[in-house]
Amino acid sequence: MRLRVAIILAAVFAYLSPLAVFFIHYWARGNPGFAALYYRYHLLVDAGITFVAASLSGITVYWALRYMLGPWLRLERELEGLLAGRERLRPVGEEHADRIVARINELLRISRDYLSLQELEFSQLASALHDDAVQTLIAARWALGRGEAEKAERLVRDAEKSLRRVICRLAPPELEHLDLREALEQLALRQGLELELALSVDLGTEEAIEVFRIVQHALANARRHGRARKVWVRIERNGEMRVSVDDDGRGGAIEPGQGLRLLEARMRLRAGRLEWEPSPHGGIRLAASWPVET
Length: 294
What we know:
Layout: H1 2-29, H2 32-40, H3 42-83, H4 95-145, H5 149-170, H6 174-177, H7 180-191, E1 194-199, H8 205-224, E2 230-237, E3 240-247, H9 258-269, E4 273-278, E5 284-291
Parallel strand pairs: 1-2
Antiparallel strand pairs: 2-3, 3-5, 4-5
Helix pairs in contact: 1-2, 1-3, 4-5, 4-9, 7-8
């Protein structure tokens, strides 16, 4: 506040200084003694007034720049602290800059939440591999050692199924050989669901994987929790990517689990959103949208 007042006063004096020359000339007309003194030293007087005006103008510009750039310089220091390991930014005292700070802090929080959920997901995958596939393979080895070939073969097939489930959670193998439409049809068939798909756009690899993940999670929830028999999937892109999945299951309230929270964090990192609401088909509608480059 004091700096603002100083800037205003300096600016006032800087712009009023040239008026001093006018008043000196005006006063010299009615005062011959003063006029003689002024005209003898007028170069010095005019130069002094000009110097004061220029100095005050320069100080005004300096203070104004300092006042305007101060918050952004503090923001730069805060960002340097962030790179040094600080978890969040502190407000810098300027409305627009503080909005940027709040947005950065929100993105940092979402990123931390996403990484925590991702670590939990990896931990569960490791447990699934150890407790299921690995233990099954050990049992198959013991069966082979006892000469029980049929039992060993059955256990190896069980281990293969477990490994395929883990691989599907890590990366959708369907998209390596099929386009998105065929991959979603295979996904619905594997879940035992009838699929009605509305897809009229060609998607890049990254977009296709993101869409597949969303639909994969929605179909798993519809089958496991909603006891659905049919799902309606709509995929469109018009300034933003939109994916909606409706099912004809039991509906009811949704308690966000780890998978849903992970999807929500991914959408927020993409400046998008994930929503769920009752579906007109009786079950749940899961809708995701995020901006994309056109």
